[in-house]
Give the backbone structure.
Amino acid sequence: MLKFNPNPLFPEQPLFEIGSEAEIPRSARYTLYCDGQKQTVYHTDSFDYAVVVRKTRAAFPVEVQVSEPVERAVIRPVSLGISHELEGQTLRFTAPGLKKLSIEFDGELKRPLFLLQSHYVPRPSSRPTYCFEAGKVYNVGTLELQTGQNAYLEEGSIVCGRIRSYMADDVSVTGNGILYGAVWHKPDENGGRLMAEFSLGKNILVQGITIVDNGVWNIVPGACSHVEIRDVNVLSRLVTGDGIDIVGCRDVLVEHCFIRAADDCIVIKACPLPTPAACCDVKNVVVRDCVLWNAEPGNALEIGYELRCKEVSDILYTDCDIIHCEYEGNQSGGVLTIHNADRARVSNVVYENIRIEDAQEKLVDIKILDSKYSLDRVRGEVEDVYFRNITVDGPIFPVSIIRGFEMHQEVRWPRRIHFENVVIHGGVMKSANQMRMVVELAHELEFEGEMDHVKRDF
C-alpha cells in the first residue's frame, strides 16, 4: 500500500533514477578546453557548468568554443582582472589557479558557462565508509551517516539522492564528485529534500563537492557546532533553492564556495527546519572568499527571516564577490540583508571587503517586521551592524532600506548601523540621502565616523 505523504514538497523517495552519466544533459552550446584537455560541460536551462579539478594553484590556458555567433564576453568576478581574446566564436584567456568563474556572453544571464575549479580532495587515509567511484552513477535515495562516518565522492562520480546525519558527530562529505538533486522534483517545479542535511551534530565537514539542481535548500546544518563548508559549488535553478542555510548553529566556517542560487545564497536562520532543535542561538559564523549569484528570488548574504531564538551574534561576511543580484520585484530581495521577523536580538554583524558587480535589487535591506514567516509574538532587535569597504559597480545604482517596527506598545528600531568606505559607482557614501537610502523608525546611523541621527515616521 502506498504511504500518504502529507507534504508533497518533500517527497519520501526520488521521483526517478538515473541509469548512466549519459542521461545527465550535456551542453550543446559550449566546448571547453582547460590546459589543452577537453572538459565535460553539463547543461541546464539556466546555466552550463564544468567542474575542473586541480592539484596545483598554477594558472592555465582556457579555450571556450561557442556554437553560435557572439559579440562580447565578460569573465566574472571582474575583480580578478582576467583579460581575454574573443575571435569569432572562440574565447581564450588564462585562468588563475583555483578560481571559480562565470563566463557570460552578450549579457545573457540564462546562458552562462560556469568554470568551477576545485582543489583535488584526496581519499581519506582511512577507508571511507561510503566511496563513490569515478565514472559511475549511484542512486542512493537518502544516505544516512552515523557518528564517525564519511562519504567520499571521487572526481567524475555522480550521486543521485541526498546525504544527511542526525545526532551524529565527526561526519564528513568530501571529494570532487557531483551530488545530483534533479531526481527529487519535476523539471519545472520546485520541491525535493535537503541535499546535505546535518542535525544536532558537531565537527561536520563538507568539502569539494558540487551540488546541482535541487528544488529546495541545499546545504543545511541545523543545531550543529564546529561546521566547515569549504570549496563547495551549489547550483540551483528553481525557487526555494537556497545555497547554504545555517540554522541555529555555532562556530561555522564557509569559505571558497561558488553559489548560484534561485533564492538566498547564504542565509542564517533559527527555525524548525531541519529539526525543531534548530530554534536556538547562532554565534560565531564566518563566510569568506565566496563567489555568489543570487537569481531572481531571495537575497545574496542574508540573516532571516525566521529568527526564533534569543541571540544571533558575531557574524562576519568578508572578501566575497557578488557577481549578480537579480531583480525580484516583491520588495524583499537584496544584496546585504537582515530581515528580523521574530524575537531574536541580532548584533555584531560585519559585512566587509565585498565587491558587488550587479545589484538589481536593494543594496542594504535591514528590517524588523511582522511577516508571513513570523511565529513569535514579539519582535526582536537589530544593532551594531558594520558595512566596511563595500564597492558597487554595474549599470544600476541600488537603493537601500532600513526600517524598524512600531505597533501598539512595541517599539523596535534598528540602531548603531555603521557605514565605512561604502563606494557606489566610484563615490564614497557619506549620508543616507547620498546612498539613496530610505530610513524609517531607525536611528544612530554612522557614515565615515559622523553620526547621522535619522528619525522618521512612516
About this structure: The two ends are 57 Å apart (CA to CA). Confidence is low (pLDDT under 50) at residues 1-6, 453-458. The chain has no helices and 42 strands.
